[in-house]
Amino acid sequence: MRNYLSTALLATLALACTPKEEETTIDYTTLSDAERLEVAKEIAQETIMVDGHVDLPYRMKVGGFTLQREILDVSVRTDGGNFDYPRTKEGGLDAPFMSIYIPAGLQAMPGASKALADSLILMTERLTTTFPDKFAMAYSPADIEANFEKGIISLPMGMENGSGLEDDISNVAYFHKRGIRYITLTHGKDNLIGDASYDTTGTYGGLSEYGEQVVKEMNRVGIMVDLSHVSDNTFRDALAITKVPVIASHSSVRKFTPGFERNMSDELIQAMAKNGGVMMINFGGTFIDSAYAAGSGKVREHLVNYMVENNLSRTDSAFEVYAAEYTAANNPFPTVQRVADHIDHVKNLVGIDYVGLGSDFDGVGDSLPTGLKDVSMYPNLIAELLKRGYSREEIEKICYKNIFRVWTAVEEYAATAE
Fold first, then answer.
1. Staple partner for 380: which of 215, 327, 329, 371, CB 3.0–4.6 Å?
2. Rounded distance between C-alpha atoms, residue 261 and residue 21, angstroms
3. Is the pTM of this model over 0.85?
């Protein structure tokens, strides 16, 4: 064990010579919270950790990142956002999927979605060439393993919104060559591929004929089919067509957010497990607890009224101090325990082999739960799972083994496809 573990904990772990032996000699539920957190930090550093969805590329675009110079420098600790290199290393995150996010509004402008996708891919690649000692591209589980051994953060990529394919099926193979390893079929609106969960139009009643071709072509070239953001009908249609396991890169359990179609129902979770896929739990407040929206709305309303009554603006220091104190005293945020509840639900419903992590860091604003505000805090979640009796092997499955299994199956199918 690492030197920062306490003497008492070292004595507890003295008989643990290997992870398997450690598993048989330690009951993590009997440790104190402080001891358990130290073990969680150890696991986070020693285990490959994959996050299915981090919105850094679009944050860089909005923050002023260009191909000429990095105005938003995430190689050092940043004031805002949820992701940067120092915090990533602290949290033990090894492979955040960089979201190549295409806003649904661009769908009305032919060529705009593909152009933005290309520019965000270039931004991601530029991170690895500018800071080669910190970041490296990754196009397979083997790449991630190799980078992990070197202590370098892998940057695999997934395209969020299949509108980047435009109306040209050949773009599936094009984006595979550009490094995209999953495509989220839709986003906020129905697109050429199919219906989206946030859109009530129901343009196709599920996948379009073009969307069916897209799923088949993704199977053929080796791109994972991502069913976050799609409508329930699109979800079912895609499962009926795909020849390989699918993923939901950043979705949570609908049981805790009744009526929120963006999350997955028990029926869909069971169908995905039957397919062999994996759902990666989103950390955003609205995704993990239906009470968050109401609670945060009350806090916002009070603060707006306070500004008006005291003739203040958001940037006034007096307001900033008051807002911080009021929000802390009337905390509307769920906690890390709620994220663990979602993992528990999937495990209890279909088994440990079908759940992973898909935080949506840099994509869900300030709604993140207490204890999971940025990428440095993954050990808090691991500690909570240890407290609930999860084994180290189960945590490794959540962190990377489940998504590696799906990704490898997709690669193997594509290698033999005509």
1. 371
2. 43
3. yes
